[in-house]
Write a structure and sequence with these properties.
heterodimer; A: mainly alpha; Arc Repressor Mutant, subunit A; 2 domains; 2 strands; elongated; disordered C terminus; B: alpha/beta; Rossmann fold; Alpha-Beta Plaits; four-stranded antiparallel sheet; 13 strands; DNA binding (chain A); transcription regulation (chain A); DNA-binding transcription factor activity (chain A); WH-like_DNA-bd_sf (chain A)
Amino acid sequence: MFEGREPIYVQIAEQVRAEVLSGVLGEEEQVMSTTQYATTYRINPATAAKAFAELVDEGVLYKRRGVGMFVAAGARGRLLAEHRARFFTEVLDPVLAQAAVLGITADQLARHIRGSAADSSAADSSTTDSATEPEGDAR
Amino acid sequence: MSGYPVAARDLTVRFGATTALDGATFDLPAGGLHGLLGRNGSGKTTLLSTLAGLRTPSSGSVLVDGVDPFENARVMGGTGLVRESGDLLSDASVRSNLRLLGDIRSTWHADRADELVDLFRLDRRKAVSALSRGQRSALGAVVGLASRAPLTILDEVYLGMDAPTRQLFYDLLLADVIEHPRTVILSSHLIGEIEHLLERVVILHAGRVLLSDEVDALRAKGVTLTGAASAVAAAVDGLTVVATRDLGATRQVTVFDDLDDARLARARSAGVDLGAVPLQDLFIHLTGEESR
């Protein structure tokens, strides 16, 4: 837990955002209090409070006085839009840079992407298959 | 009650020809769980004794809740210093010691002390001198937690505990400071297990304050870069390097500096792996022999 390089409060906020994105935390669902969070994950309460304050500022969570903190309505949609926008620059661009270093062409990439997209829609047993590199593919 | 803020200003303490503290300056805000980190002989115990009002500075000052603690009945009464050696009557039983503490400490919670003695499975009838090192440490933790002092100072108390007992202690400490907010200073040279519990840390080295900052901020400044020696060398150019290791053609460099994301992104695209620097490693690098 919290092995990353970022400050702990950034990692906590990111973890909550990921849970909202994946739907593990539903909208209007109550989240752990900072106290519960601090004791469960054994972290400083001020650090947990800072993460939750940031999520409230962003509109991912909101406070109900005396009750606790909840996932805001529309939070998932907003996070989806932001993460989609960032996906190309933050996730895909480094992959493409690495592909360029390895001399993998755009055609090969496109074929791989279409292949795994077809696999995952065609069969539910293809999850390990789509992760293998082209050379390892014996079919 | 949310605890006493603590400050040191150019604090110097000399014993004859020895300078134990040499111009130490730092601030710890009220109501947090903070760490004091230093190697053996770095001045930790001298600093904590001065904060507890047990000795006077040779020059400079300390402020506890805004006042000089030396011979100040109010803040000395509100400060609980627990040392590993234990400031207890060693020939008296655990029970008598706890009763005595209840008589002299206004903030003492006898019920809490009783619960903690059970949780740590201490034998109330045993004399303190008959306890094992681990049991004496646990008794120190009981005293520190049950005193609920607005400034609670635990000087190396958990070093004698075994791993499961330390975990129990961390959990109890965290729950206790959340429920009864106060200022707690944990001092040690061993902090790998507690770095996430701490809000701020003061690192002492040879009587000087090497660092005083939020643990999260220190974390953001530390990074290890691992990769081809030339790529790593280019990535760390101009940054403060605290450790370098060469493993064949691969170099691993630990940096402690203000880091900008663009530089790190460039390093990553040049094939350099970035990793976190645990506080304990940073401490070792900053206070190790090769850095002084």
